[in-house]
Design brief:
Layout: H1 2-7, H2 18-41, H3 52-110, H4 124-160, H5 166-173, H6 178-190, E1 194-197, E2 200-203
Antiparallel strand pairs: 1-2
Helix pairs in contact: 2-3
Length: about 200
Amino acid sequence: MHAWNQTHKGQPEKQSPFWLSVILAVAYIIATLSLILVLEILPNLEHYAPAMFPLLAVVGAVNLALRSHHNARIREENNLTKDAVARQRQLEDEDRALKAEERKMKTAAKYGVTINQNVTPPSVSHQNNVIDNQLTTRLMAGKQNKIDGRRDQLVGIVRNNPHIELVELQRRLGLGSANTVKADIKFLIDTGRLEFENRTFTTKG
């Protein structure tokens, strides 16, 4: 109880009855010493010894009540702490979800994805699915346009420099992987836009 009160200074509603527990301890010691005095030193007064037992019983009963109340006080604070932590986590989850939704809407606006605000969607989940599908379509189209542009650039480079090395071609295209260049060359050969024989490129069309 003393340690509890020290950690809850300035909070009188949370203070425990520490001094009552001290008084009980003192009363218990006095009663015990009195019994020893009566039974061992003054045996002539042994008939008065039973009078101490009610006092010991009261001390024990009050002590149990104090312990019970203090345990309840600790449990209540632990529950409040857990509730506060759970609420804080809920607020953080809601904040993350809100930020994710804002990022999604910004991305949708960036790629020109819009939703008719005059029509009430069946559900938020359905609205999110619509946005996701539209975003996926726009992103895939944008990616394909980027690939097509890179391949057109590759054709233009080898047309002007038929003997260009793979490393130099990769550098001019600004690619970090030679596998991407090889895949583009294979695609262009398969589609009939390029030929590669004797380390020489030939463009068609």
